[in-house]
Amino acid sequence: MKKILFLIVLGSVLSCKQKITDADISNLNGYWEIEKVELPDGDKKEYKVNETIDFFKIDGNKGFRKKVMPQLDGTYLTNDIQEDIVIAVKDGDATIQYKTTYASWKEDVIQLTKDKLVVKNEQDLEYHYKRPVKFSVK
């Protein structure tokens, strides 16, 4: 009985990570707002309001990420700073490799759908993103 329970729990844990395909990568394009960060010790940091939003532009397996600032009229303020990225997909696992003039790092893609993005960095911080809702004063 303990072995069966162990296998059920193990299967649940292993099934938490989505199998990512090349076709899923197109879902990364567009604007993403951070929702929460899960720390390695299980603590969570919730983000109610975001001053910046991430914008991804991917073509094939290459592209960039920029930080943009949402404005009251529904537009985004941006600058020329961007992080070049390369996406590597292998056996259902995807990695985003970032590079700037000053640093390079990577994040593993845990989940990627049209409306949800979850990535984990090398410090085991898990970032949960959602599509932002446009704000308007109308």
How does this structure look, described?
With 138 residues, this protein is mainly beta. About 5% of the residues have low confidence. The chain has 1 helix and 10 strands. The protein is 9% helix and 47% strand. An 8-stranded antiparallel beta barrel has the order 1-3-4-6-7-8-9-10. A hairpin with a 3-residue loop joins strand 8 and strand 9. The longest helix has 13 residues. It holds the Pfam family Lipocalin_4. This is Lipocalin family protein. It comes from Flavobacterium lacisediminis.
Q: What does the average pLDDT come to?
A: 88
Question: Which residues form runs of ≥5 with pLDDT under 50?
Answer: 9-15
Rg calc: 17 Å
What is the H/E string?
HEEEEEEEEEE
Report the span from N to C terminus. 61 Å
Number of helices: 1
Kindly name the structural category.
mainly beta
Q: How many strand elements?
A: 10
Main sheet characteristics:
8 strands, antiparallel, barrel
What spatial order of strands do you see in the largest sheet?
Answer: 1-3-4-6-7-8-9-10
Helix content: under 10%
Shape: globular
Strand content: over 45%
Protein name: Lipocalin family protein
InterPro entries: Lipocalin-like
Provide keyphrases for this structure:
globular; Lipocalin family protein; 138 residues; Lipocalin-like; mainly beta; 9% helix
Structure, briefly:
The chain is mainly beta. It has 1 helix and 10 strands; from the N terminus they run αββββββββββ.
